[in-house]
C-alpha cells in the first residue's frame, strides 16, 4: 500500500487465479515495462513524433484490471495509455508504428502516442483532454446496458481528472442509471508537475465516489493481484445490473510526466520509497516465495521482452510513413 495510506478491501470473494495466470500477470507487466523503456529510447532517437507519457510504475493497474475483463468489454483510457492497450492485447509493432507515424500503426499512424485505439479489442479511446474519457465510458456503458449483452466498460483516469467537472457528471449519471462502468482512478499523487496536496483537499479519492453513493474500493495499485481481486467483483456486479464501482489504485509514476521531464519537483525520499514498491519487484517476490518463478526464469522473461520490444520497434520504423489521404475513419467505424 502507498506509504502512509489506509486500505479498505472489497468484501466480496475474489475469483482465484491459477498459478499459470499469476505468472502471466508478471509477464504482462514485464512486457509493458520493456515496451515503455523502448519508447523512451526511440523517443531519444527522434523516432517518436509528438510527445509521450510513459506508464512505468503503473503496470499492475493495467495488468490486474485487464485480467478481469471479457474480450467484448470496452476500455477508455488516457494519454498515459500504452499499458492499458498492451495488457488488452494490442500488437506491440502496430503500437510502435502508431508512435512513429507509420501507416501500419493502429490508427494508420495519424494518432500517435496519445491516441492508441483498437475497436476490435474494445479499446475505444485514449483521451488527451483530462477527464474527457469519463463521459465517453458512460456512453459506452449505456450502449452495453441497452444491448443487454452484459458487457462492461472500464474507464481509466488519473487523480487530476477527479477535479474536472466531467468526472462528477459521469459519476452521477452512471450511478443514477446503474450503468455497467468501472471507474479506475490511477492515483499517482501528481497531475503534471503538481503534487495532489496542492490541488485536492485529501489524498484518498474514494471519498468522492461516496458522495455519489457509489461502491468504492481503495486498493494498492502496485499489487497486481490486489488490483485483480478488487476489479473482478466490480465487473461481476456491473454485468449483473448492480451498477458502477469506483476503484482507486494508489500508484506512482517512475518517470516524469512526459518526454524528458526529469521530475525534479518530487522529494527524492518519496521517489525512493515508491521505487522500492515497484509492482514488478513486488509480484516477482510473491511468485518466488510461492515457488512459481525462479530468478533465472524471471531474468529470461525480461530479456525476451526487451528483445521483442526492440524487434517490434525496428520493424515499425521500417514501415512507410502515414498518409493523410487514407480513409482511416471509414475503415474503422463503418
Ligand atoms: C482539461 C485539461 N486541462 C489541462 C490539461 C493539461 N494536462 C495534461 S496531463 C495533466 C495532468 C493530469 O493528471 P492526472 O489526471 O493525475 O493523470 P497523470 O498524468 O498523473 O496520469 C494536465 C493538467 C489537459 N490535457 N486537459
Ligand atoms: Mg496523476
Q: Into which percent range does the helicity of residues fall?
A: 40-55%
CATH topological fold name = Rossmann fold
CATH architecture: 3-Layer(aba) Sandwich
Poorly predicted parts: 1-11
Ligands, deduplicated? thiamine diphosphate, magnesium ion
Sum up the overall morphology in one term: globular
Integer tally of domains: 1
Give the structural class: alpha/beta
Mean of all residue-level pLDDT scores:
94
CATH superfamily: Thiamin diphosphate (ThDP)-binding fold, Pyr/PP domains
Radius of gyration: 19 Å
Question: Can you describe this structure?
Answer:
The radius of gyration is 19 Å and the shape is globular. The protein is α/β, with parallel strands linked by helices and 334 residues long. The protein has a six-stranded parallel β-sheet with strand order 2-1-3-4-8-7, with helices on both faces. The chain has a two-stranded antiparallel sheet with strand order 5-6. Helices cover 43% and strands 12% of the residues. The chain has a single domain, classed as Thiamin diphosphate (ThDP)-binding fold, Pyr/PP domains (Rossmann fold), CATH 3.40.50.970. The protein starts with 18 loop residues before the first helix and ends with a helix. It has twelve helices and eight strands.
In short:
This protein is an alpha/beta fold.
Notable features of this structure?
Rossmann fold; 12 helices; six-stranded parallel sheet; globular; two-stranded antiparallel ribbon; disordered N terminus; 12% strand; 8 strands; alpha/beta; 334 residues; binds magnesium ion
